[in-house]
């Protein structure tokens, strides 16, 4: 769950106005939200604040019950381990195999190697990459890289899952599988926010939406 109250965000190098303006939005545990709006509306900026990669310029931000504006670094670092992020540009580590990329969140949690092997094998099979465990990201197609990024974001069963355009490199069948996975995770208690421009997907999977326009919240619910 998370709650933003009157949140504004101005990039340090902003040429135009604020990327987010007085946004207030709350999403409960286990809920799914689309994050919608035209290019430049502020979707990625909102996700960066929720992913604890950027600090709001003003307002109140509560992520998984922690008021993050006042939180110390150690608290933020631990909180991050409970968040999964699928980045628009994947952000895989090119010199680590697909297996090791996906294993990272579990290794950060110091989980036993035998358990890591089991979990990573299972999720990689689920995303259809059971035979590409040793491949380096540059050896994979865009869609394969996106599926590795998705596997890495969910492997540790995060309490909050944030995904920026997670279907843009996937075909329809893979996108459908991904939506099935998201819905299962939400049922298990993960709060999920998915930014997308994929109108067909939103029509196929109707859900509440957070809609932004030029940094302002124009619709919630
Ligand atoms: N690093 C940055 N420095 C300065 N301004 C930025 C930076 N990143 C984004 N912006 C600006 O912040 C505003 C919101 O951008 P953001 O990336 O959050 O939009 P978006 O809705 O995610 O767009 P898209 O759908 O194209 O990904 C835009 O006006 C953008 O130009």
UniProtKB/TrEMBL annotation:
User: Which SUPFAM superfamilies does this one have?
Assistant: P-loop containing nucleoside triphosphate hydrolases (SSF52540)
Q: Does the keyword ATP-binding apply?
A: yes
Is the keyword Nucleotide-binding assigned to this protein?
A: yes
Q: Mention any one GO cellular component term assigned to this protein in its UniProt record.
A: plasma membrane
Question: What residue stretches are annotated with the ABC transporter domain?
Answer: 2-221
* Xref: Pfam families: ABC_tran
**Protein family per UniProt:** Belongs to the ABC transporter superfamily.
Q: Please state what the protein is called.
A: Cell division ATP-binding protein FtsE
Q: Name the gene.
A: ftsE
């Amino acid at each position: 769950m998370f709650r933003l109250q009157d949140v504004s965000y101005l990039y340090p190098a902003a040429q135009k106005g604020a990327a987010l303006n007085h946004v207030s939005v709350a999403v409960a545990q286990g809920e799914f939200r689309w994050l919608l709006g035209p290019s430049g509306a502020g979707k990625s900026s909102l996700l960066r604040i929720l992913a604890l990669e950027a600090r709001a310029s003003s307002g109140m931000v509560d992520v998984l019950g922690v008021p993050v504006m006042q939180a110390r670094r150690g608290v933020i670092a631990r909180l991050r381990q409970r968040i999964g992020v699928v980045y628009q540009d994947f952000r895989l580590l090119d010199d680590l195999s697909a297996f090791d990329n996906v294993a990272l969140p579990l290794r950060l949690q110091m989980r036993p190697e035998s358990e890591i092997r089991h979990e990573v094998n299972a999720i990689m099979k689920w995303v259809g990459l059971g035979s590409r465990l040793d491949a380096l990201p540059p050896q994979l197609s865009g869609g394969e890289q996106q599926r590795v990024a998705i596997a890495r974001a969910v492997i540790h069963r995060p309490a909050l899952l944030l995904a920026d355009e997670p279907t843009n490199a996937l075909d329809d069948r893979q996108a459908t599988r991904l939506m099935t996975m998201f819905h299962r995770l939400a049922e298990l208690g993960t709060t999920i926010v998915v930014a997308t421009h994929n109108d067909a997907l939103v029509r196929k999977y109707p859900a509440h939406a957070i809609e932004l326009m030029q940094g302002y919240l124009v619709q919630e619910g």
